[in-house]
Structure formats: C-alpha cells, structure tokens
Amino acid sequence: MPELRKDPIVGRWVVVNVENPYLPQDFNLTPFKWQGNQGCPFCYGNEHLTPAEIEVISPIPRTPNSSGWKVRVVPNKFPALRIEGDLNKHASGIYDVSNGVGAHEVIIDNPDHYKDMPDLDDLEVEYILKTYRSRSLDLRKDKRFKYLLIFKNVGLEAGASLEHCHSQLIALPMVPKNVAEEVKGAQHYYEYRERCIFCDMLSYEQENRGERVVLETQHFISFCPLSSRFSFEVWIMPKDHSVDYAETGDAILWDLSKIFKDTLTRLKKVLGQHPYNYIIHTSPVNTDVPFSYHWHIEIMPKLTSVAGFEWGSGFYVVQTPPETAAKLLREC
Amino acid sequence: MPELRKDPIVGRWVVVNVENPYLPQDFNLTPFKWQGNQGCPFCYGNEHLTPAEIEVISPIPRTPNSSGWKVRVVPNKFPALRIEGDLNKHASGIYDVSNGVGAHEVIIDNPDHYKDMPDLDDLEVEYILKTYRSRSLDLRKDKRFKYLLIFKNVGLEAGASLEHCHSQLIALPMVPKNVAEEVKGAQHYYEYRERCIFCDMLSYEQENRGERVVLETQHFISFCPLSSRFSFEVWIMPKDHSVDYAETGDAILWDLSKIFKDTLTRLKKVLGQHPYNYIIHTSPVNTDVPFSYHWHIEIMPKLTSVAGFEWGSGFYVVQTPPETAAKLLREC
Questions:
Q1: B189-220: per-residue pLDDT in tens?
Q2: pTM for this entry
Q3: Which ipTM was obtained for this model?
Q4: Which fold has domain A3-22+42-331?
Q5: Is B308 in Cβ contact with A168 (below 8 Å)?
Q6: What is the CATH number of domain B3-77+99-331?
Q7: CB contact under 8 A, B277 and A177
C-alpha cells in the first residue's frame, strides 16, 4: 500500500509509492539534445546581445560588456516585472491589483555554453554563490522589495528557455504566498515548541543518518526530505540556525560550494542529464525578520509532469521514495 | 508595465503580461500526434485489459465488461491510493504519516479513441457529467473519505499517460491543502461581508460582461478569471449559490453539458489541439459542510511549463491576459 506523508511546515500531503519504487530508468526522460552555442547571448563575444551588465566576477581587468568574465549579471531582456516607478496597489472590484514593479536579473553562471554546476570546479561554483549573495545584498537596499527569489531552471521541461546555464533573481514588491506559508508554518511550530522546525528536521535526519541523508560537510547536510514532492528532491541546509542566505560568511559559502556541486554531480550521475529547478528558500527583506525561519536550498528534478490530481489537491505523487533516492545518491 | 493581480480567495498573486499579450500562435505548442488505438484498454473489445467495471452508462442491455457502453468506470490499474483497510495515521518523528487508503477510479468518457468533449454530442457530454455525479454520491457513503476529486488530464504535458479521453476520480481520506485553502478563503470572506465570494465574482463579471465573460446560459456562466494562473484559463460556475456538484439536478446538469462542451470547443478552435486539465472544485464530504463554498469547474490549458519562479513563489506569469483570452473565445 502507498504511504501518505505530511509536510510539517506547510501541511502538504504527498503520496509515496513505497511498494514499487521507480528507479531512474523508469522515468522515460526525453533524451537531452544540445541546440548549440550559435548566437547564444550568454557566450563570450555576444555580450552586446544582452542589456548592459549589472555586476560581474572577473579575475582579470576588462572593459564592461566584453568577454573575460567568470560570472555575469544582466537585466532580463524579457522581464516578468519592471524596475521603474512606485508601487501602486489599488482595488478592482473585489480584486487587488498593482503595477508590476520589481526586478528581474539573469545570472550567467559560467562562460562555457556546455557546462552546468557538476562540470565546474569548486571555485567556479563559489563565484556563483557569491554572486547570489551580493545581488541579494544590493537589491535589498531598494525598500520597495520585500522578497528576493533566486532560482534556476535547467531543461525545457523545467521552464528553461535558453540552454546556456543561468540562474535568475526576481525581486518582488510583496512576500509571495509560498514563502509566507513557509515562514508562518515555521513560526507556528516555534510558538508551540520553542524550537526551529528546520533544526528539528535536521536532527531527525542526523539521528537516522542511513535513511535519507545524501552528504554531510562541516556546515551543511544534503538530504531527501521524508515528505518530498518530487522524486529525487534534495534539500541542502546549513547545520547552524540561520535565517538569511545573504548573511553566510565566506568560509561557510566555500563549504556550500563543495556540497552543492557534489550533490548536483550525484544527481546527474544517477539520473543522467535531466530537467530540474533549484530555489534558494530564504527570509523576506525590508519587513519583519522571521527568527524561526531557516534558509535552505531545494533541488527539484522534473521527471514527471504535474497533472490534474496535483493541481486540484496540492497532493503530490512521488514514484521514488526519498529513502531509495538517498541510497542511490549516497552509493553512486 | 506588467500588472500584478491577487486572487481574492487564496491570496495568490499573478503577473499578467498586459503589454505584449501572447496570441495562440506565440506559444510554440508541440504539434499533437496520435499514437493510435492499437491495444488501447479503453476501446471497445479491450474491456478485459482493465480491472472489472464499477459502473457504466449503457442504453442497451449488455454483459458486464463487454462493449456497447457509453461511459465506463473502472478502478485505476495503477492506483495512487488503495481502497482496502482502515486509515492508520501515526507520527514518524516530527512528521505525520498514514497508509494510503483511498480510491482511484478511471471514467472512460466515451468509447471513441479519437474523441474529446468538443467532438461529442450534448447527450454524450451529459452522460459523463451524470457519471461524475453518481460516482461522487456512491463514494461518499464510505465514511473514510473526506474529499472526492474529479479531474481530467488531456495531453502528455498535462500529465495524461493514455490518449483515449478519460477522467479520474480520487477519493482522499483527508481534505487536501488546496481545497482547504479555498474553503477557508471563502469562509473568511463570508464572515467579513456575509456574502459568498464566488457569487461576488459572478456579479462583478456580469456587470462587466464585455470583459472576461465567454458564455452565459440560463444556469451557468463561463469566464476567464481576472487573476487566472494560466493563459486561457476558464471557469464555469453555477449562477445560483450551490455548495456541492453532486447535488446538481438533471435540468441544470443538461444546461451544464451544453456550456461545458461549447467552452471546450471554443478553446480547441482558438488554441488547436492542446494539453489541458480540468478540475471540479466542490465541497468536502463527511465533514462540516462549508455553506460559503460555491462549486465550479476550472479549465487550465497547459501552454507553457511551470518553472522555478512559480515553484518558489506561488506567483504565476500569465502571457495572455484573461481579457484578451475571453475576447478571442467569445468571438471565434
């Protein structure tokens, strides 16, 4: 019989296929085909194809908007939200509407068109993580923004429109629903138990280390959560309680670079090239600081489509139990 | 500048591209290719390929599990949940878990492999809607079930694994998160205003009939909600306040058959063959009856992939404003 499991933070139920767990080959993934780097706006020499850069990491001196960079941040050419103007919230009948104030930046992870995180060296991964931090610190100076969402889409099925590996940052003028729910869930738990729910998840995983833990370093743990929504979902979480990703110091970020790369490398080894998203779950900015929150990264492989059952209920069907996924990722 | 709109029921924000609305041809849909009906377990003559039928609509006398039926209901061969056993909820560390008690039925909409709702006559559509009603009335007799989710997946991108048109019913031993949120949202509004929020949405759309209304019949309205999550999303809603789909009488169901078919036909005319889901949003069973709830059907075309931004925030980016979609659907 399948097992139902409830996420203790937001109360979401998932159905876990514990009887006939899918193995990687059972997912029938469409084989990935490269389109090639011709005309790619994220490759060296094509810097003029993007809007002017906002920030770069470059170990060598260079003219702005030319090659030589290691990580390059540019405004999204087709932004979901726009940076200009004051926020103008108003009513429209029973609805609330607002103009679309925000920022939408693209972080070009690496100049090499064909490299994703597993193919980079630790230092190159660290450049990306440092860029996330500095963009987050810079954008929060704009008091209109209440949330800075950093995420990555890899592969068509995960919503990537360009194959050259890149991350995105969207600055939002309100705390989005999913974040608000997570923050509230953590607050409720804290009020009741006077403990952080994420720290409790960590302890639980550490006590049952052979079950769902994938990797552990000095400062981080990566594990497949008991109530994962997706097969092979992995979370990376700092061991010490920490509210805000952007407050992570250099030494800890260096440790994160290694576990992050190692985790993604194992996913690629086990699943092959596959579509996935990752999202940095961190606290809101320019509003109350939720002390009970604990930042982490959620990596979500997209191996099946989301269908009517998921849309209608908020339940998810997980074909590979997290215990099976973690074992495969640990032992690969 | 894009426009932000907030769903008044669950508080979800959407970003609407009001500047450069996508038209149907801008979505780059993968052209649909039929695999064919060979070995299809839902076609006449292959009834032995499914588990034994639970219910059928058949105007002619027939032997069970043979051809001649108009609508046929069978247990899902690969059920997400299982009908046997008592619900056994218990703790696992900080998590709640349960055995996967439930029911998972497949409603084969029509014997013709190549026909979806727009290709059926009104009577055949009515057969389907009557089957939804009778399955819902039958399954609620089992007091373990708290929610009966009726939905349809059409096309690979919308999660359909078989191309022969079919609906599904999943009986759940708890009220799922998405439903609970909607019920709670409607209750909050009702406590504050002493009015049903869905009735208020209806009045608002009727007052601005030229904006987002697609069709109107004696008992129903179909419209593209102001805060749609998906391009060309359409809701069909009874005009009279009604909590439970299964309590709909025959005359009203006949009216629904017509507006439902007409709406789906218009979507197919405007978008071509496209992946979509629809979900019947109705009240929970065997628990408190939420008087402030108002059942309706949500039709959600899947024209783009859901990506990291949506997963991380709960925001949705809508490339075709509902006003543009409704106009195209009205005038086609």
A1: 999 999 999 999 999 999 988 899 999 999 99
A2: 0.95
A3: 0.92
A4: HIT family, subunit A (3.30.428)
A5: yes
A6: 3.30.428.10
A7: no
